[in-house]
Design a protein that fits this description.
By secondary structure, this protein is an alpha/beta fold. It has three domains: 22-250, Rossmann fold; 362-651, Spore Coat Polysaccharide Biosynthesis Protein SpsA, Chain A (Alpha-Beta Complex), CATH 3.90.550; 687-938, Spore Coat Polysaccharide Biosynthesis Protein SpsA, Chain A. The protein is built from 32 helices and 28 strands. The two termini are 30 Å apart. The model is unreliable at 1-5, 196-211 and 237-254 (pLDDT under 50).
């Protein structure tokens, strides 16, 4: 059965065989012309494009390689053109994936103008050619293509004049013959300066022009070699006259050119008139007194705007004076001061709080007991919902509840209608009548619109259960969402009494705030969907009624923590919250409400600096506005409320010992990148139907406490088909720790332990890969941690993106000071070097992918092997280079992991020095990897 071939899109520059017209004649003619040179030869067609030319040459060649940088073109060519001696390879003309001296002929048609690395390309062409090989290369003549008509081809990076083109080739080959090509009625290729008595009829002035060659040739074609070139004669590639006329009639460039020329003539006339007017205005301006008076000011401005250039000269002069050292000292102090100014909005409590979270990691997470499966053991819960003109969401919300695994007869629903003017209230009454026998109880309360918190306070006062699920109406529950969050709450209540609430995870856009990857403790909970402990709620006293909407959940969370409670995030309990119709949308009520709440919360919980910065931010937003129309008016509308509420919130400042309340500009805790990464509804199946993922952790003696935390972050993953392979380099000292991990995390955490002799990290990594059964693999060192969505995000990317072999996400670098049996986290930062879209060439120069942040196909290990076991440093970089030869990687701009580096400057310096020393060795290894790959392709 024939495979259906998808057409390759034409860019307007790339030729595809479906195109008719002049471009058809030009491209086919060149390939037909070189067939005699390619008979029974090994040929390289560089920039093979759609593949038609390589296929034509394969009819006469012994072997031909079609190489192109565009992976879509290569994929298309492989499907459309097949011959036993024809092979298409993705590659760059400056880094051709073939060994040296391997081809007899290189064909390169219209490639060189598409980049500016001409010398690199010619070196590569020379490298792959045999000593007696020939190069056949074409280039458009800049004088004809661009200069004469004033054209600018957006696809051409650097065009060459004919003499430049010939000189470039001459620098690399002893002999060359140059041909010229243009389309007449057909296409003609003639040797340069070899044709006599060639007559061109000029239709404009009816005069014949006798030429020694073609009239205004478009393309130059050079055949070059280090041996004497035996060139073909001239060539005519034509069609029957009726086809030729059709070509010109239907050619888009011909018809477009006629209308475009007329359009340009009109533009030229208009511009000439404007130019005359502008020149008159300029003359008046230059002769004015004001222009002459302000000349000194313009000179000063010019100096300031060009200060970097002047600074270089000034620095050279100052170096020779005694002022140099004092000025350097002052400059360093200035940059330190500038850095502190930039960090002012970043509350010091952010890092203090994260450090406190990290100290709680030894306790891990209270594991939700699998024994709580008997529905009679599950508690009765109340769900409270505040409604205000939300009738469109009611049906989906109720339907998602009806599908819950949790017994509905143990759920009481309490709706509070805040004065809706649509059909919401009537719908709620209908729901109450229809499902009263399914739920334990359904209550509908009417109220005026006093805000989100006040509405839920009213509902909670009407409830009786120890656990209350506060919920928005514009969401849907996954079928196991409620039972998962209840199990987590029950497990926590058995082990401790200081957990106040459990936040459910939101899709499609997860809230980006920080939470601890091990304990799942978080600075504040979003109350779009959160399970509250009634005891904690009663102690806190409910929501603050002065905050109408947006920010009331942050204030309530901070109040709970000020009373000694902890807050948890439950990634396994998922709701779909449809709060945004599109990404980055700004809702006026959310904008103004959030601004006011941030200011008020700073007054109550912030330090003096936090309060002052909050006031400055409010003033700035009123003066400068945000990035949408009406933002200043919305901000100014808060002024009256701020004046009225400032004394109340300032006087209620809670003096809390050993508690931290972070702020960051108009937000709060440290945020992870990727707020609008779309976590779409699950399309990968359930449980074992999903691809298995192998997480490989290398460890060694004395790392037990780190290993436990690492394993906990794996257990917390939202993806549920994982095997965790733990490889010990140097004995079996962590054997008991592995048993503790298994007993603590239960059978659902599939752990395989491999003790090894002390043979190095690379050997241990390879043993882990040998034992990996998963379709995909991740390396997670024992001192690194994964956020709960790491595996899910990367598996979804790999499963939904064709032609990639690996996916990687963003990662926080955590500066850490280690001491015996523990550590202190000193700073969290996102290194800009790691926010790098995939670029194979850049990857060859530096490693911008932290080891734990990447997931790759495990069959790469079977095809090409793993780590180089002779390499101690940068072994992961060499592995990514090797795997990049088999396909592309893809960056996901979402922070899903963290890795540790030393925080002490002296240790960081020594570590960097080791890496720098290892770099030159890694470069040699890189060359070996690339050469080995090229030789394998040829074989």
């Amino acid at each position: 059965m024939n495979k259906e071939i998808q057409l390759l899109n034409s860019t307007g520059e790339r030729f595809v065989t479906e195109l008719e017209g002049i471009i058809n004649l030009e491209h086919w003619h060149r390939y037909f012309y070189v067939l005699k040179h390619c008979e029974n030869k090994t040929v390289l067609d560089i920039a093979s494009g759609e593949g038609y030319g390589s296929y034509l040459v394969s009819k006469v060649a012994k072997k031909i390689f079609g190489v192109d940088i565009d992976k879509d073109s290569i994929s298309h060519a492989k499907n459309k053109y097949q011959n036993k001696n024809l092979e298409f390879i993705e590659g760059d003309c400056t880094r051709i994936p073939l060994p040296s001296c391997c081809v007899d002929v290189v064909v390169s048609f219209e490639t060189i103008e598409h980049h500016d690395q001409h010398l690199d390309m010619m070196r590569e062409l020379k490298r792959v050619l045999k000593p007696d090989g020939i190069l056949i290369i074409s280039s458009p003549d800049k004088a004809e293509c661009s200069d004469r008509n004033g054209n600018s081809n957006i696809y051409h990076i650097k065009e060459l004049y004919k003499d430049e083109f010939k000189n470039l080739v001459k620098n690399f080959f002893k002999y060359q013959v140059c041909f010229e090509q243009r389309v007449t009625v057909g296409s003609i290729i003639l040797p340069e300066d070899k044709v006599t008595n060639f007559v061109n009829i000029n239709l404009e002035n009816k005069e014949d022009i006798k030429l020694n060659g073609l009239y205004r040739p478009i393309f130059s074609i050079i055949i070059a070699s280090d041996t004497q070139v035996k060139a073909n004669e001239g060539s005519l590639y034509d069609y029957p006259i009726e086809r030729a006329f059709e070509f010109f009639k239907n050619d888009e460039s011909f018809s477009e050119a006629v209308s475009y020329i007329a359009h340009l003539e009109n533009d030229i006339n208009t511009l000439n008139k404007q130019l005359i007017k502008s020149n008159n205005r300029l003359a008046i301006l230059l002769s004015s007194n004001s222009f002459k008076i302000t000349k000194p000011l313009r000179k000063i401005r010019s100096i300031i705007s060009n200060y970097p250039r002047y600074l270089v000269h000034l620095k050279t002069i100052i170096r020779k004076t005694k002022l140099y050292k004092p000025l350097c000292y002052m400059a360093s102090k200035f940059f330190v001061f500038k850095k502190k100014i930039k960090e002012l909005p970043f509350s010091k409590d952010n890092l203090i709080l994260i450090e406190k979270f990290s100290k709680n990691r030894s306790g891990g997470v209270s594991i939700a007991s699998s024994e709580v499966t008997n529905y009679s053991d599950l508690p009765h819960i109340d769900i409270t919902v505040v409604v205000y003109n939300n009738s469109q969401w009611i049906d989906d919300y109720i339907n998602s509840l009806l599908l819950q695994k949790y017994p509905l007869d143990k759920i009481s629903m309490i709706f509070v209608d805040n004065g809706s003017t649509d059909e919401s209230l009537n719908k709620l009454y209908q729901i109450s009548e229809r499902y009263i026998d399914i739920f334990s109880k359904i209550t509908v309360l009417k109220s005026i619109n006093n805000g989100f918190g006040a509405g839920h306070d009213l509902a909670i006062k009407d409830s009786l259960s120890d656990l209350v699920l506060v919920s928005n109406l514009d969401l849907k529950f996954e079928k196991d969402a409620i039972i998962n969050v209840i199990r987590s709450a029950l497990a926590d209540q058995v082990n401790s009494s200081d957990i106040a609430c459990w936040e459910l995870r939101q899709k499609p856009y997860e809230h980006p705030k920080f939470y601890d990857p091990v304990t799942l403790e978080t600075p504040w909970c979003s109350h779009a969907c959160v399970l509250l402990s009634r005891r904690a709620y009663n102690v806190a006293g409910g929501y603050d009624k002065n905050i109408f909407m947006y920010g009331e959940d942050v204030e309530f969370s901070y109040r709970l923590r000020s009373l000694g409670f902890k807050l948890r995030y439950i990634p396994s309990a998922v709701v779909y919250h449809y709060t945004y119709d599109e990404i980055n949308i700004i809702k006026p009520l959310q904008f103004s409400g959030s601004l006011l709440s941030n200011y008020l919360i700073r007054l109550r919980y912030g330090h003096v600096k936090d309060k002052l910065i909050g006031l400055v931010l409010q003033i700035l937003i009123i003066i400068r506005g945000a990035n949408f129309k009406g933002s200043r008016s919305l901000a100014f509308g808060n002024v009256t409320k701020m004046i009225f509420l400032t004394p109340r919130f300032y006087q209620s400042r809670r003096k809390i010992v050993n508690e931290s309340f972070p702020f960051y500009y108009f937000d709060y805790a440290l945020n992870r990148e990727g707020a609008f990464y779309n976590l779409c509804e699950n399309t990968l199946g359930e449980g074992a139907d999903k691809p298995l993922v192998s997480i490989i952790t290398r460890t060694y003696k004395g790392r037990d406490y780190l290993l436990k935390q690492c394993a906990q972050s794996v257990y917390n993953q939202t993806y549920d088909n994982i095997e965790h392979i733990i490889v010990e380099d140097g004995g079996d000292t962590v054997k008991q720790t592995i048993k503790d991990i298994k007993s603590t995390l239960g059978e659902s955490h599939l752990v395989k332990y491999i003790p090894l002799p002390k043979l190095g990290r690379s050997f241990a990594g390879n043993k882990g890969l040998e034992n990996a059964r998963g379709k995909y693999a991740v390396f997670l060192d024992d001192d690194d941690l994964l956020f709960s969505d790491h595996v899910e995000v990367l598996v979804n990317t790999l499963e939904n993106c064709a032609n990639i072999v690996a996916a990687y996400s963003l990662a926080w670098e955590v500066g850490t000071e280690f001491f015996e049996g523990g550590y202190i986290e000193k700073f969290y930062q996102m290194n800009s070097r790691f926010i790098q879209e995939y670029d194979k060439n850049k990857l060859y120069e530096e490693n911008y992918i932290p080891i734990q942040s990447i997931m790759f196909k495990t069959n790469l290990f079977k095809e090409s092997g793993g780590f180089d076991e002779n390499v101690e440093y940068l072994e992961d970089w060499l592995l990514w280079i090797k795997y990049s030869l088999y396909g592309d990687f893809k960056l996901v701009k979402k922070t899903t992991s963290l890795f540790r580096t030393p925080s002490e400057s002296t240790i960081r310096y020594e570590r960097q020095k080791q890496l720098n020393n290892a770099y030159s060795m890694a470069i040699k290894k890189r060359r070996e990897i690339l050469d080995e790959f090229r030789s394998r392709i040829i074989k």
